[in-house]
Specification:
single chain; 206 residues; alpha+beta; Metallo-beta-lactamase, Chain A; 2 domains; six-stranded mixed beta sheet; 8 helices
């Protein structure tokens, strides 16, 4: 466990740190709710899961399902990505048995957090995963970056996809240039990145 008086350092997945009488567990959740570097915090002494945008609700209480539909059908269909690992990550969060789900947008949930997260997983699978499958990923690609799109198509972790994209498309670059190329694939939707991602799909999709 990391003390609040320790020297600053990176926190690993599952590691805990204390802030006085509270103890937090750091949880890496790539692509959930958004980017590859996403993470959540679980406060263990009171069983509070800080959900960031995971349970985003527009308007009245209990509108998570409708918010998923609104985002899917609106100008930001990739707002909450659904990847091959989303279900497992939600199950892991549920196994913490949180008593409070503290959403950044909308109402907090007080009660059986494990069941609430299982319900959320079912809703996300219904609204987001089926939409991706029915469009061959096209709807997801329109609002996301190429590395995440390829990760869904190949059922591979995003960091592995990015490594392949950088290795194949920017061969011979020095380390600073490779770092910039990696950042581009994680964060951009440039024509270059999309072309390289499309090539990888056709090479590796059966």
């Amino acid at each position: 466990m990391i003390s609040s008086r320790s020297a600053p350092r990176a926190v690993g997945d599952g590691e805990t740190f204390a802030t006085g009488r509270f103890r937090f567990r750091f949880l890496q959740t790539p692509q959930m709710p958004h980017g590859w570097d996403a993470a959540l915090l679980f406060e263990e002494t009171q069983s509070v899961l800080f959900c960031s945008d995971l349970l985003h609700q527009n308007g009245d209480v209990g509108r998570f399902h409708q918010t998923l539909v609104d985002n899917r059908d609106g100008p930001t269909p990739g707002y909450l990505p659904y990847t091959p690992r989303t279900g497992a990550m939600l199950k892991r969060l549920g196994e913490l048995r949180p008593k409070v789900l503290a959403a950044m947008h909308g109402s907090a949930y007080l009660g059986d957090g494990e069941q609430a997260l299982a319900d959320a997983a079912a809703m996300m699978r219904e609204v987001l995963a089926r939409s991706i499958e029915s469009t061959g990923g096209a709807g997801y690609r329109s609002a996301s970056n190429p590395a995440r799109f390829v990760a869904i198509r190949l059922s591979a972790p995003v960091h592995e996809v990015v490594a392949k994209l950088v290795a194949r498309s920017r061969f011979g670059l020095d380390q600073p240039q490779r770092d910039r190329a990696t950042l581009e694939f994680y964060s951009s939707s440039t024509a270059f990145a999309c072309a390289a991602a499309t090539k990888l799909i056709f090479e590796e999709t059966p």
